[in-house]
Write a structure and sequence with these properties.
The chain is an alpha+beta fold and about 280 residues long. The protein has 7 helices and 11 strands. It folds into 2 domains: about 120 residues, Hypothetical upf0131 protein ytfp, CATH 3.10.490; about 150 residues, Gamma-glutamyl cyclotransferase-like (Hypothetical upf0131 protein ytfp, Roll), CATH 3.10.490. α6 packs antiparallel against α7. The longest helix is centred in the C-terminal third of the chain and has 14 residues. This is Putative gamma-glutamylcyclotransferase (Bacillithiol degradation). Its EC number is 2.3.2.-.
């Protein structure tokens, strides 16, 4: 007999690698690692966030298919929350799902997490001595780091890594051409994994235009050789456009980094894709 299932959007301690994920979500099927809803995120101060549905901001999370049995267990954890039917956006379009939310009045005394991302917020709060950073565009090369005089942050190169479920695309359009992005479409991409000191985070967020809404922080699992590195910081384009070709200088930086660290098969694939794109 087929089990009844529901689609669930999670944004806090049920996220992959978070406190309750292994206990409650291990039998659930991931539908989207990059998902978001209209809402505001708040820190309860007790080790977990809460979400208020709101048109004025965005909450980032993950989308899963869960059994009714699993949802019942989550109901017990989320006692006092509203189980609400909402529209969830993904790279493959909108989906209807349930999410656990609270009303605006209950959040009035809580600290808002302006980024809308629980993992990003925790990284800034914890301030670890170092973290992993996954680069897939021009940051695979060190030219920009040297220009900004921050190359000392990026000396510890773990190596070329692979990322499942995503494909490198060029969706950030500028007057001179596009910039790289990763789109969750079930594919596979490659990039360079660094271990960087926490002090590098301000440079990365500024470089990627996080405060301006150009890219947003995201956290992915990257495989280098036989080892999986969990929750590596990367950045995804917020407002994706139809792809066009990147400018020559940007393409050159991608190719330099790729030639040093990435597989021959991927280098051929990314060159072929860039060749196929219309020039601005």
């Amino acid at each position: 007999m087929t089990k009844e299932t529901k689609t669930l959007f999670v944004y806090g301690t049920l996220l992959k690698h978070e406190k309750y994920h292994e206990t409650l979500m291990k039998e659930s099927s991931p539908l989207a690692a990059s998902a978001w809803i209209k809402g505001r995120l708040y820190d309860t101060g007790e080790g977990y966030p809460v979400c208020v549905v709101s048109e004025q901001s965005t909450v980032y999370g993950e989308l899963y298919e869960v059994s009714d049995e699993t949802l019942h267990k989550i109901d017990e954890l989320e006692e006092g929350y509203d189980q609400q039917e909402i529209e969830v956006m993904t790279d493959q379009g909108p989906r209807s799902a349930v999410a656990y939310t609270i009303c605006k009045q209950k959040a009035s005394s809580l600290k808002e997490i302006e980024s809308g991302c629980w993992k990003s917020y925790q990284l800034w709060e914890r301030k670890p001595s170092s973290f992993y950073y996954f680069a897939y565009g021009s940051c695979m090369d060190d030219a920009r780091f040297k220009l900004a005089k921050v190359e000392h942050y990026f000396k510890q190169i773990i190596g070329g890594g692979t990322l499942d479920r995503f494909t490198t695309r060029f969706t950030l359009v500028r007057p001179d051409g596009s910039r790289a992005d990763m789109v969750e479409d079930g594919g596979e991409t490659e990039g360079v994994l660094y271990e960087v000191p926490f002090d590098a985070i301000r440079y990365l967020y500024k470089r990627e235009g996080v405060n301006e809404g150009t890219y947003r922080p995201a956290f992915v699992d990257v495989t280098v050789g036989d080892q999986v590195y969990e929750d590596c910081l990367t950045f995804l384009v917020l407002k994706k456009s139809e792809e066009i070709a990147p400018p020559g200088h940007y393409r050159s930086e991608i190719e330099k980094g790729a030639d040093l660290y990435l597989s021959e098969a991927f280098r051929k694939k990314i060159r072929s894709h860039m060749d196929s794109l219309m020039k601005p």
